[in-house]
Task: structure prediction
Amino acid sequence: METKNLIIFVVLSFLILAFFGPQPDKPNEDISNDTNVVEDKSLPSDIKNKEISTGFSLDKSNYVQVETDMYKASISKEGGDIRNLYLKKYKDKNSNDSYQLMSDAADPLLYIAQSGLLGKSLPTHRSIYESPVNNYKMEGKDSAGTVNF
Result:
């Protein structure tokens, strides 16, 4: 009888270790291999042909324009969000214009940098800011200036 209990104990111990013990690590896959190409299928291929409604309209007259040697930005006074951002030193491959990194045109998607904080009595992305100047042009040594709101 004692031998039977010992065999049951050994078998149960082995099963517990097999199922709940340390699991072998998965082998690391080399992600730098050029043959591993992932195609983004999250958007339909004909999205440029569709009308996209963002559900809100933007007041484009309420922007502060900031231009430096490196970029040109449009900052909304509603929330202080960066609505348009053009990189001046890079050209768009389809035109000779500066490369547009962010756009509020929703063509095909909306790319902006929203600001704001969570909490009571803190500024949100809907807070209205005032600026003494609507156009800032910073060149040379002045390119590290500040934009006051």
Observations:
- The two ends are 86 Å apart (CA to CA).
- Residues 33-37 have pLDDT under 50 and may be disordered.
- The longest helix spans residues 2-20.
- The helical segments are 2-20.
